[in-house]
Amino acid sequence: MLQTMRAKLTLWYTVVLAIVLIAFAAATYFYFVRATAQRTDDALLESSDLVVASLNSELGEAAERGSQTIREVVNDFQFRDRQIIVFDENHQIVASSQPPEKNRNPKDWPAPEVFAKIPGLITNNGRACSTQSGGHGIRFCGVVLQSPSGTFVIVTAKSLLDEQETLEQVRTALGIAIPVALALAGLGGFLLAKRSLAPVVQMGDQAARISATNLHERLPVKSERDEVGRLAIIINDLLSRLNQSFEQQRRFMADASHELRTPLSSVLGEAEVALSKTHRDEIEYRQSLDSVYKEGTRMSRIVEDLLSLARADSGQLAVRPVECFLGDLVEDCIRALKHGAEKREVALSFTRPAVELVVQGDAELLRRLFMNLLDNAIKYTKPGGVVTAVLYRRQAECIFAVQDTGRGIAVEAQAHIFERFYREDRVRGRNIESQGSGAGLGLSIAQWIANLHGGRVTLEDSSEKGSTFSVRLPGSLRD
User: Fold this and answer.
1) Cβ neighbours of residue 356 closer than 8 Å, sequence gap 6 or more
2) Count of structural domains within the chain
3) Helices (H) and strands (E) in the chain, counts
4) Are 401 and 439 members of one domain?
5) pTM, two decimal places
């Protein structure tokens, strides 16, 4: 039971409250004991002073009858709860009043001789108080009397029975009140903890019902201002991100299957046609093999792109940063794509800066970044069009820009072109598969490579006259 948060909170609350109550009760009890003792001493000293005042008056008038006068005066003082004893300077009892009625038991009230030690306790101020252990304890105080008849010590004694009974009642009240208060506080704390944690329990039950099939469900948020509400909001945001990731994975798998199915169907179709007849001439076989090769190359490129993205997502793709000269990398890409551009009747040009632009990065990944942008520009440029590549530096960035004279990108598609498997030609209802269209991964991979190197790929402009993409990478100059 103590494993639950409610039980732990209740136990902690009860323990802390118990410590506070016990400390408060102890402090109150000791203060009450001291206050009671002080009141008793004050009352005893007041009684002694009263007796001393009477004796001073009487002894002054009848000094020759000192002892007799003292006994008469003492007998006149009959207190309900205290006794008067008078000692001479030799510590001998001169007079003594009767003990209180309620303390006639010898066990409860000692003999007057017991108080003979009081005169020896008198200090310079002429007063002293002490406690005698008896049945219930006796508190007595002594006052020195200087008179013409001699020096006397007036001792007033009082039984502590009433005080002890009062203290016993206080202890009993505290002994009952503290456990009752702790029990009520513990019950209240448990109910409060249960009520406070009820939203957490409800959130836990709701979270336990959420799986990959119903990630659209969310936890209830009763109040956005308290900690539980903020926790529910954070978990709901997490569920939204998970749902988005799952949707991306589902779309990724569906799109990957779709993109691979098309070339695979072409390969199987060509193979079926080639095998449908027993005898074919060499030209027909070569045509079939050529189609199979092209579609196989396309599937290989899609699989390679998928593998790269999968490794990038898992963080397993090793990056080997070296000093890369961007001018040389771009020129290599231009040479590699020159033949394909001429075949499509697209003019491809590159303007190299006068100084060398250098970045720290993976040369192969950067080459792939430039190749993807240039290849996309060539694909979507009509015959007779122009693709222009420019490399320059602005402030602390090296910028590679590619401008084409293609048909441009639809406005509704511009916000999605960097998404995986997104193909703008589908939005426009155009099919350019025959022109060598990819699977819609080129720009996504390009953006990932740029981000990996601390840069970014942006669509600067797009209209019916063409599009311009730019790559911004942190770099430096080299003379």
Assistant:
1) 325, 326, 327, 477, 478, 479
2) 3
3) 9, 13
4) yes
5) 0.50
